[in-house]
Amino acid sequence: MIEEEKDSVFKLENAIVKYKEASDSIYQFKPLSVNENKYNRIDTIYIHKELSLQNVQFIPFPTENFNSMLTNYDFKGFGFNHINFKKKVTLRNTLAVLFNECVFENTLTVNNNDPIVYNIYDYIKKNENRYNSESALMQTDFILNSSELRKGISFLFDLKNTDNLYEGEVEITNSKIWKKPNSVNLNAWSSDIKCNNLLSLNINNLTFYNQARIYNINGRYFNFTENKFEDITYFYFSAKNDKSNIKIKNNIFKKYVVTSLNTLTKSSEVDWDNFSNKLINSSSFNEYFYTLRENEKIGVIESYKKLEKLDNKKDSLINIYKNSYLLSHKSALKKEVQLRVNYYDFYKSQQDLESSNALYIEYKDLLLMQSKLQYKQNPSFETFFKWRINQFLKVFSAYGTKPEKAVIFSLYVILLFAFIYLLFPNSWDTLGKKRLIHRFEFFQKYLRRNEGMHTIYLEDKQQEISSYEAFKTNLEKAHLELPSFFITWSKPLYNASMFSSRITSRFLKTTDVLHGKWKDLSPKQKRWKNIQIGLLLTVGLLYDLFIKALNALMLSINTFTTLGFGEIPIKGLPRYLAIIQGFIGWFMLTIFSVSLISQLLN
């Protein structure tokens, strides 16, 4: 019929188109063999006429095959398969139709909201027995699968019939919708999918390259997954009742999502990651948009052209709206807050702490912007403190939602003050100075005598070792005068006391390979002696630095946690810094405690 039409527009009204194997199989995908579920593609069919169909219903395969194909998304074999539509395609009140692997060079318009369609229902119901065995017409399914729409889509599916038998099911999957060119037509600036009172709407694996408007109002099942939006998106949905199921997962919104106060049920599944830092309240944004048009005296098309140029520049419409308009219009800011509170309550009811915390952060960010504006409009200590304390809470603990950030920042403060204390002397480091002097005296003796290092070491330790030996000798002499258990328990004490001296002496004896006075050694031996002494001094110096750093760190921790140590073991400027650090520690630990308790209660 399309080929025989002489006009450039093919029109058909009030018709039922049934599938017949004998005549229509040549337009199908044919299986390669009976046992293989593979299909051999035929050549693409090109339609060069504009199509206008009104109240035309398409009857696919028998019901059992139809349901199986819907379940498996296997749309090969019926409907419009692999067809290239060169011009506009307009469908009005065509409820049951399928497009599979089609290309629309021009716009696709689907408008299903005219009550005249129910005349078809009456006709089908009168002939129910006849059609029930041949088709699935009673299914009001619109299916668009694996297709490409190069100039967008305008889709309206509004069923007003309350009879569940005719509740519609819409599947739009695995398709690409491209950006429309400049046009004087307002509808050319976005692709619309608007559905009301549907049984189910499934939009999966869709890619929008232009602005998109997605509406699903009073739907019972809404599955919206794995979609990608390159431009601004208008997104509206609401549940029919508490039993409605809404699933929004794994979508990618490259730019902002303009939406309303949506209703979500307990059974809904919504990934907040889809919308994080992208939500814009539609009511307040539209007010801003219309105000912009009035102030700049521009028309509708010009305003949409300006809106399309959304980017990260400071003068983009979205940034002006967020950073200027919201702050000067309390009602707009209140609506943005309400939008996030609505989602916050939903995630709290689902015990999704991560998502509810993310929403709480966005809500507090809006209030932070407001407090900054209040300070600029009315500079005072109170407004300054309110602004800065909120700013600090955001950085320090994400407004109390991330106590782990408080721990990290506390560690940074402790390390910073520890570094400062490291640069100044304190009373805890006095032993380090004596140890360093003693070490140089030890190596001086070693370089001027013939004995090895272990011998000199034992000489320096003689008084200490003698006391240990005297302790051991007294125990051995008094074994008849003392209980055996007392002597048994004393031996480990002696061995522990001598352990350090024995290990150090053995190490020095093993590593000391060159004996003799420095002045008597050959040049080659002196070089080895230099290396030996240099390594030992370096190890000793590193050990001293480690102890000094450890003392500085302990001093910083002690000061930060305000444990108290009586007299502050440091003098000069660091003494006053220690007091300041103590105040900072008290303040930060208090906030950390509150944040931690808040998360534990949640």
From TrEMBL:
InterPro entries the UniProt entry points to: K_chnl_dom
Domain spans labelled Potassium channel: 536-598
Entry keywords, A to Z: Membrane, Transmembrane, Transmembrane helix
A Pfam family matched in the record: Ion_trans_2
Transmembrane segments: 406-424, 533-556, 576-597
Record-given protein name: Ion channel
